[in-house]
């Protein structure tokens, strides 16, 4: 597949996994966008998230790797223990600098770097979580002309992250879970 011209970022923490699975299940079989998912995971506790989702969704779910080109029709997950950044040449970069908002990987770090590279071709979605990670990243996506979507706090299992992003956002679309799923059904 060719290098992705459009990028869709999904950030979540506690309470977001079920919604993420529902979103990924609703994506059409072929899309030109790349999807990058970042969930707060502790590197001390290995998971089989990518492997189990590959089996469930019957499509490859990839771990984002250093210096790999971001390609369309791929779904990437940020690796636990590393910040994930998007480089100007549309590749990934992994970083082990200090946690941001008590998290590594940090949603803010990914959203900010992707916004600067993809500008108006970047969509960022922030879901349930128990800290403020992602709020500043949403603001940066908007600053660079991208689209921001925040899960309705009333639909989030833990509404701290969505509420924080709503207070920093200037123009985010606040959507209920069903509206988010409908959005993912229409991705091209």
Automatic annotation (TrEMBL):
Coiled-coil region list: none
Catalytic activity entry: [protein]-L-glutamate 5-O-methyl ester + H2O = L-glutamyl-[protein] + methanol + H(+)
Entry keyword rRNA-binding: no
Superkingdom of the source species: Bacteria
Active site: 13, 40, 133
Family matches, as InterPro entries: CheB_C (IPR035909), Sig_transdc_resp-reg_Me-estase (IPR000673)
Residues in CheB-type methylesterase domain copies: 1-180
Name of one Pfam family that matches: CheB_methylest
Enzyme class: hydrolase
EC numbers on record: 3.1.1.61
Keywords, alphabetical: Chemotaxis, Hydrolase
PROSITE patterns per record: CHEB
Protein name: protein-glutamate methylesterase
């Amino acid at each position: 597949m060719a290098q992705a011209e459009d990028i869709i970022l999904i950030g979540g923490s506690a309470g977001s996994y079920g919604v993420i699975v529902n979103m990924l299940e609703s994506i059409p079989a072929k899309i030109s966008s790349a999807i990058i998912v970042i969930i707060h995971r502790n590197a001390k506790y290995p998971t089989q998230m990518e492997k189990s989702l590959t089996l469930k969704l019957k499509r490859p779910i990839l771990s984002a790797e250093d210096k790999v080109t971001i390609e369309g029709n791929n779904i990437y997950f940020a690796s636990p223990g590393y910040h994930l950044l998007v480089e100007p040449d549309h590749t990934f970069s992994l970083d082990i600098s200090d946690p941001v908002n008590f998290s590594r990987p940090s949603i803010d770090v990914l959203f900010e770097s992707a916004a600067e590279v993809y500008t108006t071709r970047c969509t960022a979605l922030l879901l349930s979580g128990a800290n403020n990670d992602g709020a500043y990243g949403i603001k940066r996506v908007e600053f660079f002309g991208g689209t921001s979507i925040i899960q309705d706090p009333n639909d989030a299992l833990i509404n701290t992250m969505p509420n924080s992003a709503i207070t920093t956002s200037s123009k985010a679309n606040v959507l209920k879970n069903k509206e988010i799923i409908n959005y993912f059904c229409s991705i091209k």
